[in-house]
Amino acid sequence: METPVPIAVMESAVSGGARVPPRLAPTPEGDRPACALARKLDGFAPLTEQDRTALVDLIGHVRPVERHAVLVEQDSVPDHALIVFAGFASRYKRRVSGRRQIVAYLVPGDLCDRGALHGHPLHHTLETLTPCHIAKVPRAAYLDLLGRHPRIALALQRARFVEEATAREWVVNLGMRSGVERMAHLLCELMERLGSIGQVTDGQYDLPLTQLDLADTLGLSSVHVNRVLQVLRRDGLISLQGRCLHILAPRRLRQLAEFEVAYLKAGYL
Amino acid sequence: METPVPIAVMESAVSGGARVPPRLAPTPEGDRPACALARKLDGFAPLTEQDRTALVDLIGHVRPVERHAVLVEQDSVPDHALIVFAGFASRYKRRVSGRRQIVAYLVPGDLCDRGALHGHPLHHTLETLTPCHIAKVPRAAYLDLLGRHPRIALALQRARFVEEATAREWVVNLGMRSGVERMAHLLCELMERLGSIGQVTDGQYDLPLTQLDLADTLGLSSVHVNRVLQVLRRDGLISLQGRCLHILAPRRLRQLAEFEVAYLKAGYL
DNA sequence: CGGTGTCTTGAATCTAGTCAAATGATGTGG
DNA sequence: CCACATCATTTGACTAGATTCAAGACACCG
Question: What are the residue boundaries of the HTH crp-type domain, all occurrences included (chains A, B) (predicted)?
Fold first, then answer.
């Protein structure tokens, strides 16, 4: 967590990563914005060239972070905004028994600005699930950015709505879906979220989570997660080897999960 | 849903309600603020006399609403802010099978202003669980209120943080607690929320929900909710007759649920 | 000497089987 | 709408074996 990294190097370095050769096409088309954040926010509110430049300037704050690094401890009040540029992070809560429940994923383009902006403590822990590249933007610089770029502020506001809707969707997922359905729904959600930042190619994306991570997300045991994945494979819905997930039958998968994509899109005013 | 109702009449009329004589002391002490909303917001940010007056003036918009009335249909964009003054309402989502999952409760003092303020559609249905008194405040009037009363706006912002934290807490509840623990946690949460608006006396409060409502909240079958309640009764943690819930052993109940009250309180800046 | 490739080894991680516990479905009566 | 009984299903706990990955040791080659 020492020196800044050029962003081009960054994205491939972490996401293509260690365990499996990067089979996914790294560059979808030519017109990809500079980073996941810009790409995501642009989807929520059209950004100007200056806006994009300002976002790219955040690269100066980016540092590599190893796997399983705690970014924000529960109940602390961070004075930085955290922006994920590459890798997966999570918000989770632990029980005294040691079990954890992941309540949200942070994928590239996602951020945590609550503490920085409002001085309220977080009631859960923020931790990386994989090696990441993360920008720690000091409160002042972050506020300055929002002040100078109203479109970015608007896009971030919409992103917050989507976050809230996602949390509610997770409640639905845990509350009334079976194991298989929960997994299907999560995979659909990730396909959308990663797709919106250009990290899905031809129904395939990199899923750098262990089955234990998935279990702690879906409220299942890791053993049952394994069973559930077998079922999805057997039914020809997905193929998953190592970290490379391929959605073979998107339509059927969405139908199984009763996945409605609307909650991930910001409505237009 | 026709004529405005004096607020004093309102609160006792609905909460004391139909099925059981109102055994709970209707007036805790003498210094109770005029309405649940003022009382709740005052807990988030100290209000002035003018602020309180402005809130009381919302009475003009209040109408009685029967049980199981749909307030906002899924995917619609309401042009009013909805404020619950008495009774319980819910946000829920339905599956094609007909099953519903409640994702949030709206108790007196809670509100739904998303659609009115930002023009985004709701991704779930808003429906009363009991007879209610609800204010429908037109967008313009609501914005005007916020503009004139910055403390109210601040308190509402904090209320929104609490709502978000509550949703995450429900994810934890559904994801990694057993039936008994889920119920215990919900009862603890309601005790806090109702307590903050003065509707808990001596560990007792009015719980106007059916076991089916609770089941659809906790991701359990109604039969299992019944089992779970029997266990809590047998262990001397609660007594529940009709709608009158008495928390007999608050400490043990909180311990069982691993309930941490912090998420319901707004941190101070 | 330094770089490169192979092999070994240990730690995670995944897969799979068995049994037990929690929870759901159905029906009946109060 | 609640209480309770009965039976079916899902899911968890425990265990063990297989697989993958990472890091180091070592030999080979330039």
Answer: 177-251
B125: left (phi over 0), alpha (psi -120 to 50) or beta: beta
Whether A2 maps to a domain, the answer reads no
- Is residue B227 in some structural domain? yes
Task: Confirm or reject contact between A95 and chain B (CB < 8 A).
Answer: yes
Q: Output the pTM of the full model.
A: 0.89
Pairing of strands A111-112, A62-65: unpaired
Give A268→chain B minimum CA distance, Å.
7
Distance from C-alpha of A78 to C-alpha of A145, rounded to nearest angstrom: 18
User: Does residue B118 sit at the A interface (CB-CB below 8 Å)?
Assistant: yes
Q: What is the largest CA-CA distance in chain A?
A: 52
Per-residue pLDDT of A104-162, as tens digits, reads 999 999 999 987 788 889 999 999 999 999 999 999 999 999 999 999 999 999 999 99
Tell me if A269 is assigned to some domain: no
Output the pLDDT for position B191: 98
**Which residues does chain B have within 8 Å of residue A91's beta carbon, measured at their own beta carbons?**
168
| B171 within domain boundaries | yes
Task: From the CA of A96 to the C1' of C12: give the distance in Å.
Answer: 24
The contacts of residue A45 (CB under 8 Å, 6+ apart) are: A151, A152, A154, A155, A158, A266
* Domain count along chain A: 1
Give the domain range for residue A254: 7-264
CATH number at residue B259: 2.60.120.10
